[in-house]
Design a protein that fits this description.
about 140 residues; alpha+beta; six-stranded antiparallel beta barrel; two-stranded antiparallel sheet; 1 helix; about 20% helix; efflux transmembrane transporter activity; Putative efflux pump membrane fusion protein
């Protein structure tokens, strides 16, 4: 009887070890949460990285964003932002604030703002928009 109980305990321990090994194995897969194009790689094949460390940077397919550095105290009174191309000012688009960083950049006192472009009128993502006389680049 003692041998049976000992064998059952050993089986439970082995199953626990198997579950832990399967969990550790699942951490070796890198899965993107969105579809896009890999723009940079921060790790080499076989390199060990800590959890949460960036390994790839992905440019997301779909809606376009303009990233700009703006001065606080806050967002504009209206959410719509008028944009125009730096290289061709008559080409215009309308944007909206998608994301605003809670941190102020200590070097220049600005906050990073992502502006979603509602109607980019077929403008290439490599072109540059300007907003309020400041140059901004697509994200």
């Amino acid at each position: 009887m003692a041998e049976v109980l000992s064998a059952k305990a050993s089986l439970l321990i082995a199953n626990g070890g198997l579950e832990l090994a399967e969990l550790q194995l699942s951490y070796t897969d890198l899965r993107a949460t969105v579809a896009g194009v890999v723009t940079t790689r921060q790790a080499e094949a076989g390199q060990v990285v800590v959890a949460g460390a960036p390994v790839y940077t992905i440019a997301v397919d779909g809606e376009r964003d303009v990233v700009l550095d703006a001065f606080p105290p806050g967002p504009p009174e209206k959410n719509n932002i008028d944009l125009s191309l730096q290289s061709a000012p008559p080409i215009k688009a309308v944007g909206f604030i998608r994301e605003m960083s809670p941190k102020i950049d200590p070097t220049n006192g600005t906050v990073r703002v992502k502006v979603g472009v509602k109607n980019h009128n077929g403008v290439s993502p490599r072109r540059r928009f300007i907003s309020r006389s400041k140059r901004v680049d697509y994200w």
